[in-house]
Design goal:
Layout lengths: L1 E6 L4 H12 L4 E7 L4 H11 L3 E4 L2 H11 L4 E4 H9 L6 E4 L7 H9 L3 E4 L3 H16 L4 E3 L2 H9 L8 E8 L9 H4 L4 H4 L9 H9 L1 H13 L7 E5 L5 E7 L4 E5 L5 H9 L13 H4 L13 H12 L3 H17 L7 H12 L8 H21 L5
Parallel strand pairs: 1-2, 1-5, 2-3, 3-4, 5-6, 6-7, 8-9
Antiparallel strand pairs: 8-10, 10-11
Length: 387
Amino acid sequence: MKKISILGSTGSIGVAALDIISRNPELFKVVALAAGTNINRLAAQVEKFRPKMVSVADASTARKLKDLVGRKTKIMAGAEGAMECAAHPDANLTLSAMVGAAGLPPTLAAVYAGKNVALANKETLVAAGGLVMREARKRKVKIIPVDSEHSAIFQCLRGEKMKTVRRLILTSSGGPFLRAAIADMEKVTPEQALKHPNWNMGPKITVDSATMMNKGLEVIEARWLFNLPPEKIDVVAHPQSVIHSMVEFHDSSVMAQMGLPDMRTPISFALGYPERTKLDLTSLDLATMGTLTFEKPDLARFPALALAYEAMRIGGSAPAALNAANEVAVEAFLNGRIGFLDIARLVEKTLNEHKPAPIKTLADALLTDQWARARAREFASNGASRQ
């Protein structure tokens, strides 16, 4: 039986994971849960799964949770609490599903503690991929991807040798604005950006999908997960979201992983790895679906994707700065303080001012994150995101 700690248990990934766990009590047991401020949902999870430890955003939220669940479960708070949950001594798998760069310290704590990691928090590898993968190798920790694209590549590579890989092909739905006129995208509202055509995700990742920054972050994540340079990682828009990604080998054969757009599939694969966990989901019917289409992303329409490639080529702390600025920009857009296309403009301005440095420690990554957030907030507050 796998004993699991879940970081981000009240988010969409965490909720889906707990649903899978509840349907397979003979395979999985929850030992720790970390969340933010959604204490009503967390209290219900504690009641159902009886973890030994939970963590919330702060001490005030912890007191409120204690009133709801009593003292049977150890309640922690803040970044330290999340790190303790991640490295819980009884856990042998940590699902990292917190949103944004906040997931880096607890994910690294799990690695340092020798826990295998099911990684849904791409920002961890964007901000400090070299550090995380180096420490994972040192401790023989498995990093099992949860993002549907990276899970697809991971599955395609089972039994294959990396030296035979010519390139990775990440697919993207293109979001709601794949073919929108750039002039119309200037007027996009948060409500429009949050209407993803295929996937049901949290607000931050949904906006990232609309700008295609999400795909850019996934390219950086793939670079570290599979140890390949930028020129061997391509992106293709695939609006149906049926082929989740592909691998081309040096004999020109291409292997694809397919399925309906449902995050429970890659989550269950990561939880059960190396075994597959049975899921009662609808089967893919290609005859009914009929047509699958593909097209090259328009970088003029989606400059965020080009910025991510540029940050990856610069290397060092540049991806961490890119990610932090993007988190600030998305929040500002959702709060109505900047426009949709201002997201990429703000990120570009921040990246242009950043002086890249090596990421050798967690402190290096956090300092870059703090600097980029502060600079991006200045741009957002004074309206200087427009060029």
